[in-house]
Design brief:
Elements (H helix, E strand, L loop, with lengths): L16 H17 L4 E2 L10 E8 L2 E10 L7 H8 L7 E7 L2 E7 L12 H15 L12 H17 L7 H13 L8 E3 L8 E3 L5 E3 L5 E3 L6 H6 L1 H6 L1 H12 L3 H15 L4 H10 L3
Antiparallel strand pairs: 1-2, 2-3, 3-5, 4-5, 6-9, 7-8
């Protein structure tokens, strides 16, 4: 059995020790299952919850093997990629779930340069163009979770942090932000298939298309939510002019800018226990 090195960013906490110990055997089993001819060295620094490496099927290393530790956000990645059929995202060739593992055989992005290296105004255009393609009607047979489920879970986690002494010193702002975080999903004018974690680091250059999305975390819900992670990653612009950034992004995607600011406020409050910067942004854009 061939051994496989671990990427540097893969988290080896107590919950994953058994899975990490079994990982070489899991990879070898997948090589046999999917008739892979060769496995390259894993990408570095790699992700926090998955082992990812280029693989050869035939003459070229044109596919990627992603072997992930099962966690809630990753549950429907394969279903989302299958629904998008390579339109703006990497193609899915095969998927398998067993025990604590979710394994995917994916299209490889070549050269695979991250969009994060481009100027942020250019990132805005690429992200907007991709989201317009990703926001499709969910297939009727796919069991994607509603955005409401994720928001309720994150709101509950926020409240637990506050009970344990976290959060900001503005209790009123925190209550309003989390109230909105729970209520906004139910007031969407339309519900589409969401990526939910789309930011420049999850967009790579490719040969088939200029840019392709990797590592989606699909839910069904309000498209206005889907631009938030990109905005949070544009930290300097967000701090300098949050309303201006929201207006630009809303204009690129024909979204209601006032609703986007409400979502941004709610998400900044939800993230505020771990980010004083986002707590300050939330104060500046708090409603009324």
């Amino acid at each position: 059995m061939r051994d496989f090195p671990l990427p540097r960013n893969l988290i080896a906490d107590d919950r994953r020790q058994g899975w990490l110990a079994a990982l070489p055997g899991i990879v070898n089993d997948l090589v046999d299952r999917w008739s892979l001819d060769e496995v390259g060295a894993p990408f570095q620094p790699g992700g926090q919850t998955a082992w990812v490496a280029p693989v050869r099927v035939g003459a070229n290393f044109d596919r990627v093997l992603k072997v992930g530790w099962r966690h809630p956000e990753a549950v429907h990645e394969a279903a989302g990629l299958s629904a998008w059929e390579g339109q703006g995202s990497v193609r899915l060739y095969a998927a398998a779930e067993f025990d604590e593992t979710i394994a995917l055989l994916l299209e490889r992005c070549v050269p695979g340069t991250s969009l994060a290296g481009q100027p942020e105004p250019d990132q805005d255009l690429v992200i907007a163009g991709l989201l317009r393609r990703l926001w499709i009607e969910p297939p009727p047979t796919a069991l994607f979770r509603p955005l409401q489920v994720m928001c309720d879970e994150w709101a509950a986690a926020f409240e637990q942090k506050v009970e344990n002494g976290g959060g900001t010193d503005d209790a009123g702002m925190s209550r309003e932000g989390i109230r909105l975080f729970r209520s906004l999903p139910a007031t969407a004018e339309r519900n589409v298939l969401l990526c939910t974690d789309l930011h420049a680091g999850n967009v790579l250059t490719a040969e088939r298309e200029p840019w392709l999305v990797i590592d989606p975390k699909p839910y069904i819900g309000d498209p206005t939510y889907d631009v938030l992670q990109h905005m949070l990653n544009c930290e300097e612009r967000l701090r300098a002019d949050p309303h201006g950034l929201a207006l630009r992004v809303a204009d690129l995607l024909d979204l209601d800018p006032e609703r986007l600011v409400l979502w941004l406020f709610a998400r900044c409050v939800q993230e505020s226990p771990d980010s004083p910067i986002l707590a300050e942004v939330a104060r500046r854009i708090a409603p009324g």
